[in-house]
Design brief:
With 581 residues, the chain is an all-alpha fold. The protein contains 27 helices and no strands.
């Protein structure tokens, strides 16, 4: 009956071993096939940035970010007014404007980074998805264990090792392999979910880069995004090397022949444990490598930004001369922050397009600046008046020398007003005049000073001398009557007595002459001719003839049709004979 007992024992052990080993090998087979399916092209085919879920979520966060742009703008204004250096508008407002434009292109930017990481990752995963050698090899070993149990010799001590130890090693091996492969499966699935979530949150993350105290939120988001991009490359690389290590082991020659019977199967399984160890440490290494890779990328990007910022700052400094120094000195002084806040309160955009497009920002900035106090504007106006009083009555050479030595715009505006009131502006703008030369004031300099003077409500004198410059800088929101040009609108607000201040530069402007002939009154023309004598009369007469010729009428008819009041002044009033019509 010995053989019968051995048979029953063999069948019982075979049944226990089958249950003990089949479950781990089934789990391992499922894990490996699942991993290869996830790495294959048929798992998720929708794009990372252009699927409906991401588009819908990104649209919600973008709209929310647009609301917070207004809130951040208010914070910047208040922080500037309260002299909080980290939030000064010079540092934060350019970022706000740039990010407001950039935020609409975050899916494109992030999509490029994801595509670049996927190209590298796919290089490693393209061959893995087609394999399946690991599981098939383990299934072959399962057959070896079954055959070994069937042919076991219970009289040999080595048979006990083969029957008890080898199946245990095999089961533990398959269970650990299943766990490792399931971890890789979860990692690659979470990569999809994480990248989708990070893309959806990208508008909020970019928004947080504007303010210093919210910038760490952007850094956290950016670090996570890079990590989830890089982790796919690191994990795929580990699996790729693991497969090649497996091929090397399957080629034979990795382990020598065993010295004892029953050790052969263990000697064949143990090398595969090395593969599992490599995959396990590779998995843990992929997690840390992604963090190190993200840190390295961020470090390189920061160095690049600093380098670009340094070069760009030097170029900007050359273009704007001493602007940077003045800003730093202004901020460092007690009055510096007040000066900046005042500029916000008095700023007006240049040009018609700038006035229309920049009206909302202009209004908000003006309101924030005025919150600091109206006394700031009044202080600047008093400074302009004091400078003007000092310059009044001086020779043009002295006035021009003081203008060139002035260090602030309020001084330049005061001296310029004094030149106009002293009737010295034409001489100051004449480079051929003795003592003037290259120090002559240019029309561009006056055009740059006018908006500053207008913001401080000290522009009236400059407007009377250069109405064409004033017409190009009408306050935002100005509504022109139908058929009225900006220059005509401006001249209607110039007092008749101030026509004596009109510069020679303006008298040569055809638009100015057109406006005078079509909208001017007799007193305006008489003041103009009194200031410029024959030059003004000739200019008006020649321009009137050109306009009449264009309409194919006589100068009298043209003037009678366009400006009857001025026509009566030249023909029957005090202006009779001033010009030939």
């Amino acid at each position: 009956m010995t053989w019968l007992g051995q048979l029953i024992a063999a069948r019982l052990i075979q049944a226990v071993v089958a249950v003990f080993t089949l479950i781990p090998v089934a789990l391992f087979g499922l894990a490996e096939r699942l991993l290869r399916f996830i790495l294959g092209p048929n798992f998720i085919s929708v794009p990372y940035t252009r699927n409906e879920f991401v588009i819908f979520g990104w649209g919600l966060t973008r709209d929310l970010a647009n609301i917070f742009f207004i809130i951040f703008l208010v914070i910047i204004g208040l922080a500037t007014a309260l002299r909080i250096s980290e939030y000064q508008w010079q540092k934060t407002l350019p970022l706000l404007i740039g990010i407001a434009l950039l935020i609409n292109f975050t899916p494109v930017i992030l999509g490029l980074i994801i595509d670049a990481s996927n190209i590298i990752m796919n290089f490693f995963t393209s061959g893995i998805a087609e394999g399946g050698f690991f599981v098939s090899r383990m299934e072959a070993y399962l057959d070896s264990i079954t055959n070994m149990i069937k042919g076991a010799d219970w009289t040999e001590p080595g048979s006990y090792f083969a029957i008890l130890v080898a199946p245990s090693v095999y089961a533990i091996f398959n269970l650990m392999a299943a766990i490792i492969y399931f971890l890789f499966c979860i990692l690659f699935i979470l990569r999809y979910v994480a990248l989708w979530t990070l893309i959806i949150l990208s508008p909020i993350a970019f928004l947080c880069y504007i303010l210093p105290h919210t910038r760490r939120i952007f850094s956290l988001w950016w670090n996570q995004f890079l990590q989830w991009c890089i982790i796919g490359i690191a994990a795929a690389f580990v699996i790729y090397l693991g497969d090649h290590l497996l091929y090397f082991i399957m080629g034979g020659g990795f382990a020598s022949e065993p010295q004892y019977e029953g050790w052969g199967l263990a000697n064949q399984i143990i090398p595969y444990c090395i593969v599992l160890g490599f995959l396990l440490f590779g998995f843990l290494g992929a997690l840390s490598t992604s963090a190190m890779g993200a840190t390295a990328v961020i470090s390189v990007a920061q160095k690049g930004v600093k380098t670009a910022g340094t070069k760009g700052g030097k170029l900007a400094l050359e273009k704007t001369k001493n602007l940077g120094r003045r800003v730093r000195e202004g901020i460092a002084s007690r009055e510096g922050v007040q000066r900046i806040a005042e500029r916000m309160a008095t700023y007006a955009p240049r040009g018609r397009f700038g006035q229309v497009a920049g009206a909302p920002i202009w209004a908000i900035g003006r309101a924030m600046g005025r919150a600091v106090g109206p006394s700031l504007i009044e202080k600047e106006r008093k400074a302009i008046d004091e400078t003007e009083k000092k310059a009044i009555g001086q020779r043009v050479e002295a006035q021009l020398a003081d203008f060139r030595k002035a260090t602030t715009n309020k001084e330049r505006i005061g001296i310029l007003s004094a030149m106009i009131k002293d009737k010295n502006i034409d001489d100051a703008m004449d480079p051929d005049r003795e003592g003037i030369g290259r120090n002559a004031i240019t029309i561009d300099e006056i055009a740059r000073l006018y908006p500053i003077a207008q913001a401080r409500e000290k522009h009236q004198t400059i407007r009377s001398s250069f109405p064409n410059i004033a017409a190009a800088n009408l306050p935002p929101g100005t509504i022109l009557p139908a058929g009225v040009t900006p220059l005509e609108y401006t001249l209607e607000r110039v007092k008749a007595a101030d026509y004596e201040n009109v510069s020679r530069e303006t008298l040569e402007n055809e638009d100015f002459l057109n406006a005078v002939l079509q909208r001017g009154m007799g007193e305006h023309v008489s003041r103009l001719i009194a200031a410029h004598q024959r030059a003004a009369a000739v200019a008006l007469e020649e321009r009137l003839q050109e306009l009449a010729s264009g309409d194919r009428v006589t100068p009298r008819q043209y003037l009678q049709n366009r400006n009857p009041q001025l026509y009566r002044y030249f023909t029957r009033g005090a202006g009779r004979g001033l010009i030939g019509i």
